[in-house]
Amino acid sequence: MTAAAHSPLFPQVPESADAVLDGLDPEQREVATALHGPVCVLAGAGTGKTRAITHRIAYGVRAGILQPASVLAVTFTNRAAGEMRGRLRQLGAGGVQARTFHSAALRQLQYFWPKAVGGELPRLLERKVQLVAEAAARCRIRLDRNELRDVTSEIEWSKVTQTVPADYPAVVAKTQRDAPRDPAEIAQIYATYEELKRDRSVIDFEDVLLLTVAVLQDRHDIADHVRRQYQHFVVDEYQDVSPLQQRLLDLWLGDRDSLCVVGDASQTIYSFTGATPEHLLNFRTRHPHATVVKLVRDYRSTPQVVHLANGLLGQARGRTAEHRLELVSQREPGPEPVYTEYADEPSEAEGTARRIRDLIAAGVPAGGIAVLYRVNSQSEVYEQALADAGVPYQLRGAERFFERAEVREAGVALRGAARAGGNDSLLDDAEGLPAEVRAVLSTKGWTSKPPAGSGAVRDRWESLAALVRLAEDFERARPGATLSDLVAELDERAAAQHAPTVQGVTLASLHSAKGLEWDAVFLVGLTEGMMPIAYAKTDEQVEEERRLLYVGVTRARVHLSLSWSLSRSPGGRAGRRPSRFLSGLRPGTAPLGARGTRGTSGTGAGGGIERGPGRTTAERGRRGPARCRVCGRTLTDAGEMKLMRCEDCPSDMDEALYERLRDWRAVRAREIGQPAYCVFTDKTLMAIAEAVPGSSGELAVIAGVGARKLGRFGTAVLAICAGGTVEEALGEGAGEQ
Prior knowledge:
Layout: H1 17-20, H2 26-33, E1 39-43, H3 49-62, E2 71-75, H4 78-90, E3 97-100, H5 101-116, E4 123-124, H6 129-138, H7 145-160, H8 168-175, H9 183-200, E5 202-203, H10 205-218, H11 220-229, E6 232-235, H12 243-253, E7 259-263, H13 278-281, H14 283-286, E8 291-295, E9 297-298, H15 303-314, H16 319-322, E10 328-329, E11 338-344, H17 345-361, E12 369-373, H18 379-388, E13 393-395, H19 405-420, H20 433-441, H21 456-477, H22 483-496, E14 505-509, E15 518-523, H23 539-553, E16 556-567, E17 610-611, H24 617-623, H25 638-643, H26 655-672, H27 682-691, H28 696-700, H29 706-721, H30 726-732
Parallel strand pairs: 1-7, 1-8, 2-3, 2-6, 4-5, 6-7, 9-10, 11-16, 11-17, 12-14, 12-15, 13-14, 15-16
Helix pairs in contact: 2-3, 5-10, 6-9, 10-11, 10-12, 15-23, 17-18, 19-22, 20-21, 26-27, 26-30, 29-30
């Protein structure tokens, strides 16, 4: 087994401290055994950094060198902290605190606040947007929805960089930060926001860190108490530490140096939140005697994917680029990355959906495939394309596994069966834990064979099937485990949000894909203006965009596809260019600035570039650019193109018609066993309710209908538009397949 081979979900607890080191490669073993003094681990993507640091903690605990309660491991997401706690438990190192910076600080603040300040800690403000909006209104400054989000982000950035309102304009000028509004206005809103918080006795997440820092700075007795409690620190994703988090870490440490940091400057992609790789890059300067270990053996990706990743960083510039790690793949060779050019965005989405469908047919599980894009607004066209292709998908950041209704119901049923034990007749014929789980979940909709289609029924089955697979893995790892043991395991996983795998293609932004991996990754929309994003102006901003693409590339284990489209809408002017980051990487192109001819898009077979199928010339001429039917402006947003009007232009939608269409869609979706959006999306129904088509021709030109859906649902939709009831329409469309 290679050092980062995928281990079972429930591996056996190692028998001894030395057994903890089994299976580590030489560099990972060096990390695990370096238990004294400052340690800096420079870990490239896919090199097993979490494995190395969890084995380091576990080895120290099992060898009696580290006391579990004296170790604090901090990272940046609850998911990562939960995964770390789970791994430590599996290695026999339970009791180690693994938390996010905010979680660790909040716990300390809640404990020490009565002693340091008196009374109860002010209420934590979950979402600050509403209060920022109120602050702007008090300042008589109008903010639209996007500006409100941007100003809120600026306030967060200011606080983690320890910039007070009065200093904000000067800091923006000094750092050449691209402020979303006049810096003086933002400073005014920021100051008013802070006043409102004080008046209402609330604090925000950034205050949690600021107040903890203040308490530890002002109260030496409390700082000493914390330092007696925590004597050894591990910081994951150290390249993402903000100045405020670094200040808190320094206070936790005091004058000690029992610190291990892990990071990769080439994966610094959150500078807009205040994250900076400077602390990682300067670690050796601050700690001259530090042990530095580089992890470059990539166990995740094939040599072809790793070669592309190395080539992408090979063109990088700046101080971060000087510290890049050259990865070395440890896997067998795989397919070459595929570069595909499309005529327009809908063609790119449809082509991506076809390729995904082919991969699934070839045996790649849907849960092992991801479509990654630069901004979340790009997801809609891919949701539609995958729905049209009958491919199940899940949006990253959507409802969490353990919060799904069917999973909660299954948990209640399993807990009840565990309490009943041998008195539950349902378990009479079930032998072994998996059989018991299957028996219980069969009452909730689980069957040995999955249901047809990809609708709500299939989604429910997939959730229950994930629990069955979890029980099977648990029983293999813990022979003789009971239903009560499994319920306890599920409770721990729910608390850590450590969900089992659910089958469905993942749609996610590049930022939210950090820390994840898939068998096949589709990087889409790779055009100038999107990658790098149009507002990346400075050299450092452009380099961060390059690092963001690098993160996307290194999410792929085997299959990697990179694509772009020449225009946004069908029939639009083909004025787009592929991302500059692909120059010198895709066949037939040279790096920017190099001598020679850049590859052109005019030779589909030439240079190894695969051309995606686009619209025919006749179709392009027939459709033309999409224009707002209210103000006449050319439309580029996918949602606006469906409505055939600008989002802000007045709507003449027939509300009653829209509701009848929604009611019909809900019934029709249940009949065919698919999610409602597979019939028509909300935007398409809105467009129909605004246009009120009276013929097949008028219905066909509405974006999101298309020939296939026209033939399948057109009769019923036109019947409803003509004033018919939902029941009449269902009768009209009974023969449609």
